[in-house]
Amino acid sequence: MTNDPFSQFKAGQREAWALFSPMATFTTPPAATLVEFAAVRESDKVLDVACGTGVVAVTAALRGANTRGLDLSPVLLEDAAANAATVGLSIEFLEGDAEALPYDDGTFDVVLSQFGHMFAPRPELATAEMLRVLRPGGTIAFSTWPPDLMIGSIFSLLGRYLPGPTNAAPPSQWGDPNIVRQRLGDAVKDVQFQYDDMVMPALSPKHYLAHMERTAGPVIKLVQTLKDEPGRLTQFRAEMELLIARFFSHNRVRQTFLMTRATKC
Ligand SMILES: C[S@@+](CC[C@H](N)C(=O)[O-])C[C@H]1O[C@@H](n2cnc3c(N)ncnc32)[C@H](O)[C@@H]1O
C-alpha cells in the first residue's frame, strides 16, 4: 500500500464509486444536455473523462462521434461496455485517472466530463491533462455542481465529517464560474456557462438519502467510516435530511448543475 495520500484517496474513491450504476439512470438526461451544449459533431474524436457507466460517451457515440471513455472504477467500466454493446457500439473504455490521462497530446476534438473530473483532488493536474489531450481549437466541456446548491452543499457537509487529503480541492469549487475561469486561464477562449436541472424522483428526503447511501461514492464512504460512531452517523443523517428537504417538493429532488464550455487556444 502506498503512503501517498492522494493515491490512497483515489483507491478509496475507486472502491466507493463501484456501486454508482443505479444512479446513472438519473445522469442519463443531463448527458444528452452536455453533449448538445458541447456541440459534438459526427466524426469528432471525443473523450469522456470519469465516464462511469458511459452515459456521456454512449450519447456522443450515438451521434456518430468516435468516442472513448476513462474512469477509476473497473466495475463501472464493465457497465459502460455493456451500455455500448446494447446499441452495437464498440467504444474503448480504459481504467485510469483524470490526473494522468493515457492519451497523446492533441488526440481529441472534444473532451467532456459529467460530474466526474471534479472528483480529482488536484484540479490543476486534471485541468492540465484534459487540455493536453485536446487539440488546439477543440472544445472542453463539463458539468459540475455549484457549491451553494444541493449537491455542493452535500459536499461541504461530507467534508466536515470526513476531510479529504490536505491540499485536496473541494469538488464543488468546480461549480463556481469564477474559479472555473481561473483554472482554465488563458489556455482557452470563449468560455460559456449554462445552468440546468437534474430532477430525481423520491418519496421523501429520507428515501433520497437511502438511495445515496447505496449508490453515491462519497456518501457510502462516510457511512462506512462512521459505522462505529452511531451518534455521529445519526447526526449526519439528520443534517442530510434537512438539507435535501430544501430541494424536495412533489416527490422530486431538484439538483441544479453548471455546464462550462470553452475552446482551447
Ligand atoms: C458522479 S459519478 C459520474 C459518472 C458519469 N460521468 C455520469 O455522469 O454518470 C463520478 C465518477 O467519477 C469517477 N472518478 C472519480 N475520481 C476520478 C479520477 N481521479 N479519475 C477518473 N475517474 C474518477 C468515479 O469512478 C465515478 O465513475
UniProtKB/TrEMBL annotation:
Q: What are the entry keywords?
A: Methyltransferase, Transferase
Q: What Gene Ontology molecular function terms does this protein carry?
A: S-adenosylmethionine-dependent methyltransferase activity
Domain Methyltransferase type span(s) in chain numbering: 47-142
Q: Which domain of life is it from?
A: Bacteria
Enumerate the Gene Ontology biological process terms. Answer: methylation
Amino-acid biosynthesis recorded as keyword: no
Q: Which SUPFAM superfamilies match?
A: S-adenosyl-L-methionine-dependent methyltransferases
Family annotation (PANTHER family)? 2-METHOXY-6-POLYPRENYL-1,4-BENZOQUINOL METHYLASE, MITOCHONDRIAL, METHYLTRANSFERASE
- State the protein's name: Methyltransferase family protein
Q: Where does this protein come from, organism-wise?
A: Panacagrimonas perspica
Highest classification ranks of the organism: Bacteria, Pseudomonadati, Pseudomonadota, Gammaproteobacteria, Nevskiales
